[in-house]
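Reading a protein record of the kind used here takes only a little practice. To see the layout at work, look at the sequence and tokens printed below.
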Amino acid sequence: MTELKGLWEVKRGFKTGLKYVDAANILVKDQNVLSSFGLTVTYSSIYWALLGYLVSGISNIITEGIHLKDGKGVVFKLSTPLDSWAQLEGDDTTHKVLAVLKPLLPILAIGALLLPAVIYCFQTYMALYQTLADALLAASGKRVSSVDPGEEGYAGLVWLLMFLQLQVIEVGMPIISNSFFGDSIESIGGNIALKLWKALGVLMSAFLNGFYAFDNNWRARGFAADKRFKMLGSQACYYMGFGLPLALLCAYIGTTRGFMGGFGTFLVLFPIHIPLAAASNNFSDHKAKPIFFVTFFQALAKAIGGCNSRSTTSATIVASAGSSHRRRTRSSVKKRSSSRSSSRTARTSSRSRPRRSAVR
């Protein structure tokens, strides 16, 4: 019964993840939403283009090497920048170093210019994801809330652990399986082990796609980190189904066009899933038990950040103790001053009274 319910949730999320018409209707209704969406797609596309240029330049150096000319003008190839010194004429070390570094200088210069732009575009489009979610909530007539900045380190650590889990499934386990089975893996049911890990990687990517899309909308509503992860873990099948169309498309393009092709597809198409998540109105709590690895990663993140929380708690205790000491000191000073003023008043009043004997 539980398995059937999980499959139904995957189906429901999958249908929601394909309602691009609803997302388009939301985008065109509000100018701020459309502007935020356009900026997000623009910066993510520029980031992908610059990153692809850098990656292709580095891969060309690694795979194709560098072409140099010797003293006679003969062109030869170094498989790595410092591969073979013997191919360069002369015994002058300075000449050899300059000959090897000369073709690298333009590449290093371009990289030094492009790397800050890559970092800037990355930070910008990541911030624009949240700007888009805030604009969507404001366009619906609801108040945009803010999350506690102190929880973002903990939430980011949980996300990092889930991302590392994806890398272990997609990269680490195929390597381990290949080294374990050796040459025999080629004949075991058409690489069953590799296909199994690839399928699990697609499902984990779909789960994270759903989390990314909904998390920005949750943050716009001011949901605390534990509440967001509880909603994510208790409806894991739904969010996996929501992100499955994008994950399947990126996996297919990544297989046929390489990693940068699949990554570029994700960067261009993911922003549309933020209004898709907003249109789903799936923001209520769920009573189901959260999936095990989300709960495990929450506990692990809290354990890793335990020293920070303890130091924060101790600092709070010290600050509160200091403030209470200051309050006690102020109260004692007030009591002393009030007692002194009352004694002075009593003395003044006694002096001002006329003596009866003198009057008589």
The chain has a mean pLDDT of 76. The longest strand covers residues 66-69. The longest helix spans residues 306-352.
